[in-house]
Amino acid sequence: MPVPKAELHLHIEGTLEPELAFALAARNGVTLPYADTDELRGAYRFSDLQSFLDLYYGLMAVLRTAEDFTALADAYLERAAAQGVRHAEIFFDPQAHTARGVPIGVVIEGLSASLERSEERYGISTRLIMCFLRDESAESALATLDAAKPYLDRITGVGLDSAEVGHPPAKFREVYEAAGALGLRKVAHAGEEGPAAYIREALDVLGVERVDHGLRCMEDADLVDRLVRERVPLTLCPLSNVRLRTIDTLADHPLRAMMTAGLLVTVNSDDPAYFGGYVGDNFDAVRETLGLEPEHLRELARNSFLASFLEDDEERRARYLAEVEAYVFGGGPA
Ligand SMILES: [Zn+2]
């Protein structure tokens, strides 16, 4: 069994595998612009973040009913369990669905039906994080937060994702203030394609507690010092960075340098159906390519639980951390 870990940067829409996409398309009478799963997989060659987002949003057309969202989350949790995931904080993008006429309640009820039985079925505790699309307006984000109010008992926090460049965090100051007033935790994508300055802005203007990606902090030594000092977790997604050309090859990934610098980094899968692997596959890829030792992998697993929003269940966090310390690394998948 792989090392116990938490996954903190996972877009549930990004777990839509071609086989499930075609099954849901058939069930819902949606025609996809691909002949079969092979042709669809062949389209997964992206030149940048935007080229991925175009295909990603197109394929979401197959998600129509609450049952579709339940099936999507079930499929993810089953795969995640096999890769050692014990706790998952799952992103979803309500605007990507409400824009297509699927009500936010359908999305949340559907996902919740899966997450509610996740521990019993898959041994995975879960949290749900609602993300705003940063290339949509601040008003749209506020309307989304408002529409989510009847479901706040299911939502732990808010996030910010989609096309980063040209959409600085400060654009969403007001909605993050409102989310904070509702008691929601705060994360945001920053410093993936956007500059290190966006990471500072996410911390200072939005008050985020965890930065998604944050890779480009390495261009700003003062920022690295601050992130280390304040113990701000970064949710890295190595295979995603290669697929979206944020870095040229996995060998160029700064993960190791970031660990050496003392940053609280975690390894995650982002949109695993599109980027060549789930979280355990990301662990295995960095172990092999960056020459990580078992103690590096243990640190990454430990960090994942330290960075989790488990403040409401410290007993559980302590249990997971004890499992990490007791784990014996063998030659199998990490
Ligand atoms: Zn992401």
From TrEMBL:
<keyword id="KW-0546">Nucleotide metabolism</keyword>
<keyword id="KW-0479">Metal-binding</keyword>
<dbReference type="InterPro" id="IPR028892">
    <property type="entry name" value="ADE"/>
</dbReference>
<dbReference type="InterPro" id="IPR001365">
    <property type="entry name" value="A_deaminase_dom"/>
</dbReference>
<feature type="binding site">
    <location>
        <position position="11"/>
    </location>
    <ligand>
        <name>Zn(2+)</name>
    </ligand>
</feature>
<comment type="function">
    <text>Catalyzes the hydrolytic deamination of adenine to hypoxanthine. Plays an important role in the purine salvage pathway and in nitrogen catabolism.</text>
</comment>
<feature type="active site" description="Proton donor">
    <location>
        <position position="192"/>
    </location>
</feature>
<dbReference type="InterPro" id="IPR032466">
    <property type="entry name" value="Metal_Hydrolase"/>
</dbReference>
<dbReference type="InterPro" id="IPR006330">
    <property type="entry name" value="Ado/ade_deaminase"/>
</dbReference>
<feature type="binding site">
    <location>
        <position position="270"/>
    </location>
    <ligand>
        <name>Zn(2+)</name>
    </ligand>
</feature>
<keyword id="KW-0862">Zinc</keyword>
<dbReference type="GO" id="GO:0016787">
    <property type="term" value="F:hydrolase activity"/>
</dbReference>
<keyword id="KW-0378">Hydrolase</keyword>
<feature type="domain" description="Adenosine deaminase">
    <location>
        <begin position="4"/>
        <end position="317"/>
    </location>
</feature>
<feature type="site" description="Important for catalytic activity">
    <location>
        <position position="213"/>
    </location>
</feature>
<feature type="binding site">
    <location>
        <position position="189"/>
    </location>
    <ligand>
        <name>Zn(2+)</name>
    </ligand>
</feature>
<dbReference type="Pfam" id="PF00962">
    <property type="entry name" value="A_deaminase"/>
</dbReference>
<feature type="binding site">
    <location>
        <position position="271"/>
    </location>
    <ligand>
        <name>substrate</name>
    </ligand>
</feature>
<comment type="similarity">
    <text>Belongs to the metallo-dependent hydrolases superfamily. Adenosine and AMP deaminases family. Adenine deaminase type 2 subfamily.</text>
</comment>
<feature type="binding site">
    <location>
        <position position="9"/>
    </location>
    <ligand>
        <name>Zn(2+)</name>
    </ligand>
</feature>
<protein>
    <recommendedName>
        <fullName>Adenine deaminase</fullName>
        <ecNumber>3.5.4.2</ecNumber>
    </recommendedName>
</protein>
